[in-house]
Amino acid sequence: MLRIKKEVDLKELEKFGFEYDEDNNYYFYYGFTRPSCNSEIRIYVDKKDRVITTGFDMYVAEDKIHDKIYDLIVAGYVEKVEE
C-alpha cells in the first residue's frame, strides 16, 4: 500500500490539486478524463493514517490516476508500506 510520508506536511498536497474535506478529514483529488464526460477518477489521502486510496467510475483511463500518484512519488512524498 502507498501512503504519504510522515515528514510531509499534508497541506503540500494542495500544490498538486488536492482539496481538504474538513467533514471527513481527508484530502481528495477528482479528475475527469474528458471535459464532456462525467466519469471521474478519485484519489483520497486519509489525514490520520496518510494512506492513498484510489477509485474511478466506468470508462476512465486508469493512467490518469497513476499520473497524479507518480507526480507525488517524484516529489518524494510517497512511501510503500506493508499492509
Which value, in Å, is the CA radius of gyration?
Answer: 13 Å
Order the strands across the largest sheet as they lie in space.
Answer: 2-3-4-5
Number of strands: 6
Strand and helix order: EEEEEHE
Name the helicity range. 10-25%
The parts where pLDDT drops under 50 for at least 5 residues are none
Q: Return the structural class.
A: alpha+beta
Q: Count of helices?
A: 1
Largest sheet: 4 strands, antiparallel
Q: What share of residues are in beta strands?
A: 25-35%
What does the average pLDDT come to?
84
Distance between the termini: 6 Å
Shape: globular
Structure, described:
With 83 residues, this protein is of the alpha+beta class. The chain is built from 1 helix and 6 strands, in the order E-E-E-E-E-H-E. The protein has one helix at 63-74; strands at residues 2-4, 19-21, 26-32, 40-46, 52-56, 78-80. The strands form 2 sheets. A 4-stranded antiparallel sheet has the order 2-3-4-5, with helices on one face. A two-stranded antiparallel sheet has the order 1-6. The longest helix has 12 residues, at 63-74. The protein is globular. The model has no long low-confidence stretch (mean pLDDT 84).
